[in-house]
């Protein structure tokens, strides 16, 4: 049990390190039935972008946090907050040698005030087949651009340029 200033660091204490398997990660998401969108640079990699990232970013429907946590608990990944705490803060982290940033907001806005609701992004999602039996979902290109504008860091602006090129090439 944790004590002192870090006592709330995680409610699931059995973290360890080990080899992280991308396909196993995507399979765990796929099997949950949870509404989860892969966002951030992992989404760009799935679209063929020549970029690298050290972690995952996902956006989960606020009612599906428990489903997502259960899937990752089976992989010995520990959430940093309880589902109720995550709902209050709008985000949390799942870790075990690999960092998974989880957004749980019903909607989020860019610095310019452009809002994107999860429900709207979910209806426009695009499936990506990881293997014959594993499919995950990304936001539409337009919605992915909006998610990249949430941060508006220099690397996000480069990523937006890549996504805009994809959008122009789309039929």
Ends distance: 55 Å
Low-confidence stretches: 1-17
Largest β sheet strand count, sense and barrel closure: 5 strands, mixed
Strand arrangement, major sheet = 1-2-5-4-3
Structural class: alpha+beta
Topology:
Layout: H1 22-32, E1 36-39, H2 40-46, E2 55-60, H3 65-73, E3 78-79, H4 83-89, E4 91-95, E5 99-103, E6 107-109, E7 115-117, H5 118-123, E8 126-131, E9 134-138, H6 141-151, H7 154-169
Parallel strand pairs: 2-5
Antiparallel strand pairs: 1-2, 3-4, 4-5, 6-7, 8-9
Helix pairs in contact: 1-3, 6-7
Question: Mind explaining what this structure looks like?
Answer:
Helix 6 packs antiparallel against helix 7. Strand 4 (91-95) and strand 5 form a beta hairpin. 39% of the residues lie in helices and 23% in strands. The protein is α+β, with helices and mostly antiparallel strands and 171 residues long. Mean pLDDT is 86; it is low at 1-17. It has a single domain (14-161), classed as Beta Polymerase, domain 2 (2-Layer Sandwich), CATH 3.30.460.40.
């Amino acid at each position: 049990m944790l004590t002192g200033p870090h006592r709330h660091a995680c409610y699931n204490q059995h973290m360890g390190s080990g080899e992280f398997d991308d396909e196993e990660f995507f399979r765990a998401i796929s099997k949950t039935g949870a509404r989860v969108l892969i966002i951030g640079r992992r989404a760009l990699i799935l679209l063929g972008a020549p970029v690298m990232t050290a972690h995952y970013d996902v956006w989960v429907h606020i009612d599906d946090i428990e489903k997502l946590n259960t899937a990752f608990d089976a992989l010995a990944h520990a959430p940093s907050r309880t589902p109720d705490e995550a709902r209050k803060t709008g985000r949390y982290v799942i870790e075990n040698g690999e960092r998974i940033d989880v957004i749980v907001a019903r909607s989020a806005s860019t610095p310019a005030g452009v809002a994107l609701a999860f429900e709207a992004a979910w209806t426009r999602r695009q499936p990506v087949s990881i293997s014959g039996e594993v499919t995950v979902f990304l936001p539409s290109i337009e919605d992915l651009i909006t998610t990249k504008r949430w941060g508006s860091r220099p690397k996000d602006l480069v990523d937006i340029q890549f996504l805009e090129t994809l959008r122009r090439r789309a039929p």
